[in-house]
UniProtKB/TrEMBL annotation:
Belongs to the aldo/keto reductase family. Residues 19-274 form the NADP-dependent oxidoreductase domain. CDD domains: AKR_AKR1C1-35. This is Aldo-keto reductase family 1 member C4-like isoform X3. The keyword Oxidoreductase applies. The keyword Metal-binding does not apply. Keywords: NADP, Oxidoreductase. It holds the Pfam family Aldo_ket_red.
Length: 297
């Protein structure tokens, strides 16, 4: 198998590619940027595409996927597509309609993974899996305590296959990662390269991860980019990682992550970069009783 199609097995028996293409873009960006970037990503070799109802770009992402299927570059079963249930659809009777809205936008019959975007009940998600609209179900932005609540829920039939969270060398989530591994839940990293400054959710004065001198020195040592070092770090920890870029050169470059390996000593050095810096802190949700980022992990 081509290494860029490397997958890990989820606890429900399905497989998820370890490298994914992130599609979030600020609302002011033209939609055709997402369309063209997703096409380039599929052409380059990405098979795991991550989006969400909230990103408001599923029409473009779906069009990109369907166009590459029509061209014979991929089949639907080659693509692992993730979408997410937004907060306005948390009531059980709205969960399936929320997914059906995404599927209509995408013009696809099913998604491979359906996530709760922010912490809420999982029960109605199980019905989406039963109906075949989602092959796997999981969560996003859940802390350890919230995961425990789901895992201990009476009558739970499908435990989450993954927890998608912000994760990078400045926020390495080591305790949450250990917990997830102990429960056979895959950790999926977003903001794995830090975050772009045009994202309005990000403090413009926050440290720029890819300018970190340690990361840059390591990039020079391995003759790779700082982005590739940050991505490789996650793969060697057993984390599924999303790489977001709409720059064609960077999209293609990020697939080089399978062409080298970091030494155990360098992995420890990267572990030492952790500063618990969170770029996406969802401050608008801080007053909610289920706000996930107040706990240690």
């Amino acid at each position: 198998m081509d290494p860029k199609y490397q997958c890990v097995k989820l606890n429900d028996g399905h497989f998820i590619p370890v490298l994914g293409f992130g599609t979030y873009a600020p609302p002011e960006d033209p939609k055709n940027k997402t369309l063209e970037a997703t096409k380039v990503a599929i052409e380059a070799g990405f098979r795991h595409i991550d989006s969400a109802y909230f990103y408001n770009n599923e029409e473009e992402v779906g069009l990109a996927i369907r166009s590459k299927i029509a061209e014979g570059i991929v089949k639907r079963e080659d693509i692992f597509y993730t979408t997410k249930l937004w907060c306005t659809f948390h009531r059980p009777e709205l969960v399936r309609p929320g997914l059906e809205t995404s599927l209509k936008r995408l013009q696809l019959d099913y998604v491979d993974l359906y996530l709760i975007h922010f912490p809420m009940s999982l029960k109605a998600m199980e019905k989406c899996k039963d109906a075949g609209l989602a092959k796997s179900i999981g969560v996003s932005n859940f802390n350890c305590r919230q995961l425990e609540m789901i895992l201990n829920k009476p009558g739970l039939r499908y435990k989450p296959v993954c927890n998608q969270v912000e994760c990078h060398p400045y926020l390495n989530q080591s305790k949450l990662l250990d917990f997830c591994k102990s429960k056979d839940i895959v950790l999926v990293a977003y903001c794995a390269l830090g975050s772009q400054r045009e994202n309005q959710c990000v403090d413009p004065s926050s440290l720029v991860l890819l300018s970190d001198p340690v990361l840059c020195a390591m990039a020079e040592k391995y003759k790779r980019t700082p982005a590739l070092i940050a991505l490789r770090y996650q793969l060697q920890r057993g984390v599924v990682v999303l790489a977001k870029s709409f720059n064609e050169k960077h999209i293609r470059e990020n697939l080089q992550v399978f062409e080298f390996q970091l030494s155990s000593e360098d992995m420890k050095v990267l572990d030492g970069l952790n500063r618990n810096i969170r770029y996406i802190d969802a401050k608008l949700l801080t007053s909610h009783p289920n706000y996930p980022f107040s706990d240690e992990y």
